[in-house]
Amino acid sequence: MKSGAGSSPFVKRLALLAIAVVATGLVGCSDDDEHAEEEHLDATGSALVLDGDTLVKAMSGDLADVSGQVSLTLGDTLGPCQVLFLSDEGAWFIPVEEGEEHEEHEHGLEIRSTGGFSGFGDAETWQVWFVPSAAGTGNFRLAVLHEGHDDYVSPLFPVQVVAAP
After folding, report:
1. DSSP letter string over 79-113?
2. DSSP string spanning 127-164?
3. Contacts by 22-25, CB closer than 8 A, 24 or more apart
4. Residue 12: predicted pLDDT
């Protein structure tokens, strides 16, 4: 009987199985990375539009490039506001997700706010709503999430909440 290492049929089969598992994992990871790259939101800026009027916009990630303000009145919900993104080429767009493969890799849309209001977003329609709770000033960031990480985070947008007349 031979006693050389790796000479038994069981060891050979185990080694082949290990190689197959590693190779399958590498192919799967490269496909996932490619798919994740296709799903990544590439935006340099963002804006909120309500009834055709731009409330706030950022042409870049710089606070100096922010213009406008969201004005809220206690007792009134503001929205839906359409979220637009600015491409590297300077065109405004709304992300479009097509096909069943996008269900596994869908985006999330968050409003990260401070001050007397809260906000919530819907990444299916790329719309946001704001609910004021106390008079004063505050700010928020738009955050687009993809597979548990931020794809895009806006600079701070200013908000003013006033009492109802």
Report:
1. EEEEEEEE-TTS-EE-----STHHHHT-EEEEEEE
2. EEEEEE-SSEEEEEEEEEEETTEEEEE---EEEEEE--
3. none
4. 55
> What are the Cα distances from residue 156, in Å, to 1, 8, 14, 87?
75, 65, 56, 19
Instruction: Decide if 67 contacts 154 (C-beta within 8 A).
Output: no
Task: Note the CATH number of domain 45-162.
Answer: 2.60.40.1080
In this structure, are residues 107 and 97 in contact, taking their beta carbons and an 8 Å threshold? yes
Report pLDDT digits (tens) over 60-74. Answer: 877 788 999 999 999
Residues in the chain with pLDDT values less than 50: 1-3, 6, 14-18, 20-37, 100-102, 104-105
Which candidate, 119, 123, 49, 110, places its Cα nearest to that of 84?
Answer: 49
Residue 97: which residues within 8 A CB-CB, separation 6 or more? 106, 107
**AA letter at 159:** V
Q: Which of 139, 137, 129 is nearest to 79 (CA)?
A: 129
Q: Which amino acid is at 149?
A: H
pTM as predicted: 0.72
